[in-house]
Amino acid sequence: SLVAQGPAVCRAHSQPSNAMAAAATVMHMRRRHEVHTCNRMVCVQREQAIETNLREMRDLKDILMKYDTNRTWRLEEDQVRMLLRDLNQNQEPSETELMFIMKLCDRRCNTTAIEFSELQTAITSWKSYLRHKSEIQALLQEFDRSGTGKLERPELKAYLVHLNGGLDVKDEEVDWVLSQADVLGDGACSMLEVVMATAAWYVHFGERKHLKSGICAIV
């Protein structure tokens, strides 16, 4: 009877083993399917990103062709003025605004015109400024104690202290922010340059300051 029971015992022990093997096979196939699906999703996302970039490039080319009336493959000052006007519901940019966009975007090529490679920066910067213009005007009214329409160095420091949650800001930090934001080179921050100053502060100092102080300043 012991001999007869032997194969039955062996079969009984082999059934869970077979079940585990089958389960492992199913899990392996499922994981392969998930990895394949995930890779496919990544590929689709990359393809979509490439298509978006291509559309943006075509749009930029169309914009350049529209305003580049003398076919130099760059936008000169009068042509940039027309572009900024059309992006602002037919309102002419001020001379300061125009000069800021020209100098901001022409830093790399330095051709006194906006090249195709600089066009995206010009459009993005102008649109961002228009979105936040009313907020920036309110900030200038609060911190422009001298009434010049700009933030002079001491006023810029007061503004940065405001961004820093009331904590002191070192003079070398003020100087660095001013060097990044003062596109017009007059030693102060115009309304457009306040945007640059704010971005420079948060990118280079804000994260470190917030970790140190535990304060999150919101403009």
Walk me through the structure.
With 219 residues, the protein is mainly α. It contains 8 helices and 2 strands; from the N terminus they run αβααβααααα. It has helices at residues 2-67, 77-87, 95-105, 116-131, 133-143, 153-163, 171-181, 191-213, and strands at 74-75, 114-115.
Secondary structure tally, helices? 8
- Largest sheet report: 2 strands, antiparallel
Q: H/E order of the elements?
A: HEHHEHHHHH
Rg calculated over all Cα atoms: 30 Å
Total number of beta strands: 2
- Spatial strand arrangement across the major sheet: 1-2
Please indicate the percent range of residues in DSSP E strands (runs of 2 or more). under 5%
Rounded to the nearest angstrom, the distance between the terminal CA atoms is: 88 Å
- Categorize the overall geometry: globular
Helix % is over 70%
| Helix/sheet category | mainly alpha
Uncertain spans, ≥5 residues at pLDDT below 50? 1-16, 209-219
- pLDDT average, as an integer? 77
